[in-house]
Known about the structure:
By secondary structure, the protein is α+β, with helices and mostly antiparallel strands. The protein folds into 2 domains: 3-57; 72-247, Umud Fragment, subunit A. Helix content is 22%, strand content 25%. It is built from 7 helices and 10 strands. The protein has helices at residues 3-15, 20-28, 32-40, 47-57, 105-108, 222-225, 230-233, and strands at residues 72-73, 97-102, 121-126, 138-142, 159-163, 174-179, 187-197, 200-206, 218-221, 234-242. The protein has a 7-stranded antiparallel β-sheet. Strand 6 and strand 7 form a beta hairpin. It is globular, with a radius of gyration of 21 Å. The protein starts with a helix and ends in a 6-residue tail after the last strand.
Amino acid sequence: MSMVDTVKQGIARLARDHGGPSALAEKAGVGQPNVSKFLSGKAVPRFDTVARILEALGARILFPDEERDTTKPVVFVAARKSGGVADFATQPSAENYMAIPLAQGAVAAGPGLIPEDAVRGWVLAMKDQASIRYRTNLVAMEVGKGQESMVPTLHPLDIVLVDRDDFRPEPDGSIFLVREPGPDAEVAVKRVYTSRKEGQTLLTYVSDNPDKRFYPPSVHSLETDFHGDLRRAIVGRVVWAWSDMTRK
């Protein structure tokens, strides 16, 4: 199958989940005939038009030198049995699990694979868990000591699981790992809301901590603060969390 046919089939498949060609064209900011003619095989639109459609769908191009699967297969080693251990004890099936790298915030926010020397450990997750099924570009991150901006939802030392391929802030109020503007900006877990004002796309980062004196919302312009690149603002969606229930 040619690259054109592959892209066409992918757009056609995902367009149905976005309300059809007309809704997709509106979301991508392109003419509806461009989408319909492309999907029907009557015409091939310009590259920038296709790129805008793919961006609206949340699609990404993967080049051969860009490894996206950060997870690793799991191998369970049978424990040596001692007196009193039942012979019928069984071990879980390794095929049902994946190992996800645990890294600090700045490392977790980087692209590609996590360097081996930066991996603090590995977190086991079940592949069939609905929130992580079919996700591969995953990284685990521990909420830092003293970071209470997301209390009571998340507490310091909780571990969150982030999908770095899922970075579009939809629906409003979803929880993401985000960056503040600036070259040395810290990353943090926040709820993200979007709005439009005077031609600018505004990203509002909101903490769950009810004490807004210490954890006020912050508002940033996607165009001004992040040069129009959403990936500079949002690292990925928080899809799971491990929490110490004694702190709840």
